[in-house]
Design a protein that fits this description.
binds flavin-adenine dinucleotide, 6-stranded mixed β-sheet, 394 residues, 7-stranded mixed β-sheet, alpha/beta, 38% helix
């Protein structure tokens, strides 16, 4: 086999999944991760569709189920905390006969890392600073580790991918702000809502508390045009933006906002999509959010796992022809990603209605159970591009 050593940048969701499958196919993967440990923050995400099959074949589905948030509903409340709408998530899931599991993003990342750590070399607290590819391989300079040569390189380093910047060009050419900023932080203990997510909306803003199995999580989202000097690494700026966006909000927002200003675990970013004409150049390919972020509402983690599985399978099928393997991976995986990138606006309209009227209609709709809740479920599915089961079609 010519292309045996593969460097993967990023140990989020896509990176460890790819490392696992490459190793299973006989490659020698190395993963470089900028952070010193697997990062633990982020909202709960869903493992669904093809990702369930991938996880089953990795033998990690029981661990994923054990880490499931087990949320049974989502309550919408007004400024006084009074319920004004509700979605029965348990009923929707069982009506759909779904095998999907919702779990904290950080738990999924840890499970995938645990499954792959013995099959790959991991370099934490390091990152690529320079790349040079030629016909026979890619020379990589790291920030800390000595310079090395690899047969192939895969950028699985997320929305703000360094591999994409170094080999395809600046982020501004590929990353599209979707008009929303989002923040999450852990609350460090249980929340009294039991197994229900509680959300408070004002026009263009949403604040939610997710019980997340006793380790509750706060979620903020607000509509805003792109902030001109936005820096995804500047936590001070994130805290200022959050404070300004929610300054006059009621319910429990003042308390959550105060905590966000003290938090050392705040995740804040623009909700963005990534669109590139091609996902590979020579011996370098992109995967997960780096290639095709679908944004907050669009199944990014499940797609990242499915894409990693496909990329490894195509490389194994054409071990001496990486260009063919990259082309096949891209054409297969784009067919999954494309439709999901289309429907994000509908999901945003339901979770973060832009107007007072929109908030009222959404709340009313959830009270007209079950038809309206099914419609809402359909809205989410549409946003994710999957086909509704016949009995839920309204
Ligand atoms: C901390 C965190 C919190 C998140 N929270 C949310 C959320 O609340 N809601 C949501 O919808 N999505 C969130 N995401 C994005 C979500 O995880 C992805 O959409 C999805 O999981 C796709 O996975 P991925 O592996 O492509 O990217 P990611 O999960 O983003 O993983 C990318 C990995 O690459 C690492 N990395 C970044 N730059 C470099 C570099 N230069 N060199 C080496 N490694 C690098 C990152 O530390 C990370 O571990 C979050 C991502 C992160 C990293």
């Amino acid at each position: 086999m010519k292309n045996q050593t593969v460097l993967i940048s990023g140990a989020g969701i896509a990176g460890p999944t790819l490392a696992y499958w490459l190793a299973r196919h006989g490659f020698r993967p190395t993963v470089v991760e900028r952070s010193a440990v697997v990062r633990s923050s982020g909202s709960p995400i869903d493992v669904r569709g093809r990702a369930v099959e991938v996880a089953e074949r990795m033998g990690i589905m029981p661990r994923i189920r054990d880490a499931g948030t087990d949320v049974i509903g989502m309550r919408f409340v007004n400024a006084n905390g009074r319920q004004v709408g509700r979605v029965n998530m348990r009923a929707l899931r069982s009506a759909a006969g779904s095998r999907e599991v919702e779990l904290p993003r950080g738990d999924l990342a840890s499970i995938l890392y645990a499954a792959s750590r013995e099959h790959a070399e991991f370099l934490f607290d390091d990152f690529i600073v320079k790349l040079d590819q030629d016909a026979g391989g890619v020379d990589v300079s790291f920030n800390r580790a000595p310079r090395r040569r690899f047969d192939l390189l895969v950028g699985a380093d997320g929305l703000h991918s360094a591999v994409r910047r170094l080999s395809f060009g600046p982020e501004s050419g590929f990353v599209r702000h979707m008009g929303i900023y989002v923040a999450t932080m852990r609350l460090g203990g249980p929340f009294e809502s039991g197994r229900e997510v509680v959300m408070y909306n004002t026009p263009g803003r949403a604040v939610a508390i997710h019980p997340s199995r006793g380790d509750a999580l706060a979620f903020f989202a607000f509509r805003s045009a792109a902030v001109p000097d936005f820096d995804y690494r500047d936590t001070g700026q994130h805290k200022r933006l959050l404070a300004a966006a929610f300054a006059d909000a009621a319910w429990r927002v003042p308390e959550l906002l105060t905590r966000s200003q003290r938090s050392d675990d705040l995740y804040f970013d623009s909700v963005s999509q990534v669109r590139l004409p091609h996902w590979s150049q020579g011996r370098i390919a992109l995967l997960g959010d780096a290639a095709s972020s679908v944004s907050l509402f669009g199944d990014g983690s499940s797609l990242a796992m499915a894409g990693a599985f496909t990329l490894a399978a195509e490389l194994a099928a054409a071990p001496n022809d990486h260009e063919l393997a990259f082309r096949r991976y891209e054409s297969k995986h784009r067919a999954l990603v494309g439709p999901k990138q289309q429907g994000v606006a509908q999901a945003a309209a339901l979770l973060i209605p832009a107007t007072r009227f929109g908030v009222a209609v959404r709340n009313l709709a959830t009270r007209l159970w079950p038809a309206a809740a099914a419609a809402m479920w359909l809205g989410r599915r549409l946003a994710r591009g999957s086909k509704p089961p016949d009995h839920l079609t309204v």
